[in-house]
Specification:
Elements: H1 2-20, H2 54-57, E1 80-83, E2 88-91, E3 111-113, E4 116-120, H3 125-132, E5 144-147, E6 152-156, E7 168-176, E8 179-186, H4 198-202, H5 226-234
Antiparallel strand pairs: 1-2, 3-4, 4-5, 5-6, 6-7, 7-8
């Protein structure tokens, strides 16, 4: 009797699987109700599309760090390269910043030095701030972006990009809640919102200031005061 009962149970299980087909999972990854012994390894070797097959889906963790290569877990950012011997990131001496609209963002996210906002997109922020805070001036590193107001920017390019402008590239921008539009960019011919040539204005800065105009750097006074500058920065439309 027991032999016939076991055969009947097996036949019931087979018919149950045949009726369900690919719908054997209930959507929550639970296939235990199909009458199949989950401890039977023969049922876990084929269907990689079955959400209940946890033996195959867990083989790869997409959130795990990349451990390939000579320095597992070490990832270098823009403007740097991997020193495989020391397994650390080093600054790339040939790096350049060809700025895109995405590089110009809410000014309130950047450091404020006196009246202007500053950042470095190539990982040289420590060096950038050191120059900005040096009372004797200095040359800014490649990747530096400086803005006094959201509509204008200066970007330091690689050495030799434009010797006439100290390797600075000037930008006239239109910021909005949707982001930044680059209206014009260049070295000696960009005109700002006041109708002035950017380079001609900055060229009047004394040599130690690397073309950065401030109130005592030798440039002509700008036609807006500190209150308006603060208001423009505080109401940058790109800020959340």
């Amino acid at each position: 009797m027991r032999k016939f009962w076991v055969m009947g149970a097996v036949l019931t299980a087979v018919l149950s699987l045949g009726a369900c087909g690919d719908e054997g999972s209930d959507g929550d990854g639970d296939v235990a109700n199909n009458g199949v012994d989950n401890n039977d390894t023969g049922n876990n070797d084929t269907d990689n599309n079955d959400p209940g097959n946890n033996d195959t889906n867990n083989d790869t963790d997409n959130n795990a760090p990349n451990n390939d290569g000579p320095c597992p877990g070490v990832e270098c950012g823009p403007g740097t390269f991997l020193d495989e011997g020391a397994c650390q990131c080093e600054l790339d001496p040939e790096a350049d910043l060809e700025a895109t609209e995405e590089d110009f963002e809410c000014l309130q996210l950047w450091d404020r030095i006196r009246r202007f906002r500053i950042t470095n997109k190539l990982g040289r922020m420590e060096e950038t701030l050191a120059v900005a805070n040096n009372p004797d001036g200095g040359v800014y590193p490649v990747g530096t972006i400086i803005q006094l107001v959201p509509q204008e920017a200066m970007v330091k390019r690689r050495e030799g990009f434009s010797p006439e402008t100290g390797d600075w590239e000037f930008f006239f921008l239109t910021p909005s809640s949707d982001g930044t539009e680059i209206v014009s960019r260049g070295t000696t011919d960009v005109v700002n919102s006041f109708g002035g040539n950017c380079f001609e204005c900055h060229a009047k800065a004394e040599p130690q200031w690397d073309l950065i105009c401030e109130q005592d750097h030798g440039c002509d006074p700008i036609p807006i005061g500190e209150g308006i500058i603060n208001n423009l920065q505080d109401n940058d439309p790109r800020c959340p």
